[in-house]
Design brief:
The chain is an alpha/beta fold and about 325 residues long. Helix content is about 55%, strand content about 15%.
């Protein structure tokens, strides 16, 4: 695929240490051909939602020399990025007015709607054009809803699910699943090629999101199975550290396995300690994400007349798997 080949070239440049700062680009009117004498302008990218993943993507863009603007309600994370050279916008609208491409990496459907369509959202930006990339994993109808509103406004919006954890983003090695028109994706490859080591157009609008939903179904179903195996071993009085060594040796290296193996599967009543509170807070964040992503998968399957019994079982076991309530936990 041509676009995938282009991104492979971008990655090769970075690995060889030859990547140059993308400071300017010819900007003809959309639909017209670029040519000599076109105005050159400095290109800027914005990141909305710079928590764990969004922050790592923004840091990667800064390392690659891109001009970065960020917005997040958490001033601690935006201040940290400002120290690395990012500009901090006062609002989502202000960010939209100051960038060429706006990347949205927020948690859920409601936040995506607010960021894109709210009174101070991206669609309120006073400008003629803007490329909006939705990296958030949301329900498909929400994506189609915000894309239609963006199109009416004259802006471009497409989906680009990401996978590869925070460390992958920091190294510029995320897998990016893109759904949209090739011309729109081509126009934004200078952004996608920064944090993406593998960037693939999987189809038209919505295809990237569908791909990410299916990808996350695999992950969360595996998590439930790994947890259940650990629980069985623990109840059978098998030494968990020995069990973990055996599984790693036979199954190979896996981020999912590493996150579960060897940890007790029951909570010991330590939720009032600082460590216990931090762990419980993290578990609740992951629990919300697991519920959201698995429900998106189940709903997508239903829309096509496809039942997902393993996904439904994983959904039912989310509280136990991720330990957000007393009883079994990772």
């Amino acid at each position: 695929m041509r676009i995938e080949h282009d991104f492979d070239a971008c990655r090769a440049e970075r690995l060889l240490g030859q990547r140059t700062r993308r400071t300017t680009r010819s900007v003809p009117e959309r639909g017209s051909a670029a040519g000599p004498g076109r105005e050159e302008k400095q290109m800027r990218v914005g990141f909305i939602g710079v928590g764990a993943m969004g922050g790592a993507m923004a840091r990667r863009a800064l390392v690659d020399g891109l001009d970065v603007v960020v917005f997040d309600l958490n001033e601690e994370v935006t201040s940290a990025l400002a120290e690395k050279g990012a500009e901090v916008a006062d609002s989502v609208r202000a960010l939209g007015e100051s960038v060429d491409v706006a990347c949205v990496i927020v948690l859920n459907d409601d936040q995506v709607r607010a960021v894109v369509c709210g009174d101070e959202g991206l669609l309120a930006a006073e400008k003629d054009s803007l490329d909006i990339i939705i990296h958030s994993t949301i329900h498909l109808p929400t994506l189609l809803e915000v894309e239609e509103k963006a199109r009416v406004r004259g802006f471009t919006l497409f989906d680009a699910g990401v996978s590869g954890h925070v460390t992958g983003a920091e190294r510029g090695e995320l897998a990016v699943m893109v759904g949209g028109d090739e011309s729109d994706i081509e126009r934004c490859k200078w952004v996608l090629g920064s944090y993406g080591g593998l960037v693939v157009r999987v189809g038209p609008l919505g295809s990237g999101l569908k791909c990410k939903i299916a990808r996350n179904l695999l992950s969360f179903a595996q998590c439930a199975a790994i947890y259940e195996g650990m629980r069985l071993a623990e109840e059978a009085q098998v030494d968990l550290s020995a069990f973990a060594r055996i599984v790693r040796h036979s199954e190979g290296q896996s981020n999912l396995l590493d996150g579960f193996l060897g940890a007790p599967t029951t909570r010991e009543g330590d939720d009032e300690t600082p460590e216990g509170k931090a762990r419980l807070a993290l578990s609740k964040i992951v629990l919300e994400t697991a519920f959201k992503d698995l429900s998106a998968a189940i709903d997508l399957g239903k829309s096509m007349g496809l039942r997902l019994p393993v996904g439904e079982a994983a959904y039912a076991e989310v509280p136990a798997t991720w330990g957000a309530e007393p009883g079994p936990r990772t």
